[in-house]
Amino acid sequence: VVVKLWRRMPKENHFEVEYAKSSMATCRVCMAKVPKGALRIGHIQLEAGTEVPPAPLLENDATAAAMAKTDEDKRAAIVAGATRWHHFECFSRMRGSKWMAANLPRDPKSIQRFSEIKKPDQKKVVQLWKAMLVSAGGKAT
């Protein structure tokens, strides 16, 4: 009898912020569509040491994968499609405060594409991050 031991690879949490490119994404908290142009925050879990691939050209990861020319591009499209999007207003309810304290980056400016959003929206994200970290007992930078 052969017994296989399943060893789970540690996961890393990555966050990104952007304006919705279309109205295809669904908020994973309220399950409503995220309207095109709305500020949204994404969360993706990857195996430790894996870089976040660039977002596919299409919101729909299956369509992006089907249109990809190489196997590597198909894999990247599928992995990139694993980002779980949230309305800006819903993001703080994504997980409990204990999880947020353990997994949110301390500096919201380190979020992928943070520098690409408008200054007033950057301020909103910084305020949201501070509020989430304070309510979770963590410290924001």
Q: Radius of gyration, Cα only, in angstroms?
A: 17 Å
SSE pattern, N- to C-terminal: EEHHEHH
Spatial order of the strands forming the largest sheet: 1-2-3
Overall 3D form: globular
User: Mean pLDDT score, rounded?
Assistant: 81
Derived structural class: alpha+beta
Q: Report the strand count.
A: 3
Percentage of residues in helical conformation: 25-40%
Uncertain segments = 56-60
Measure the end-to-end span.
Answer: 53 Å
State the helix count: 4
Write a brief caption for the model.
By secondary structure, the chain is of the alpha+beta class. The protein has helices at 61-67, 71-80, 97-103, 119-135; strands spanning 11-19, 39-47, 84-87. The chain contains four helices and three strands, in the order ββααβαα.
How would you describe this protein?
This protein is an alpha+beta fold. Mean pLDDT is 81; it is low at 56-60. Helix 1 runs antiparallel to helix 2. It has four helices and three strands. A three-stranded antiparallel sheet has the order 1-2-3, with no helix packed on it.
Could you list some keywords that capture this structure?
three-stranded antiparallel beta sheet; alpha+beta; 141 residues
List the helices and strands and how they pair.
Elements: E1 11-19, E2 39-47, H1 61-67, H2 71-80, E3 84-87, H3 97-103, H4 119-135
Antiparallel strand pairs: 1-2, 2-3
Helix pairs in contact: 1-2
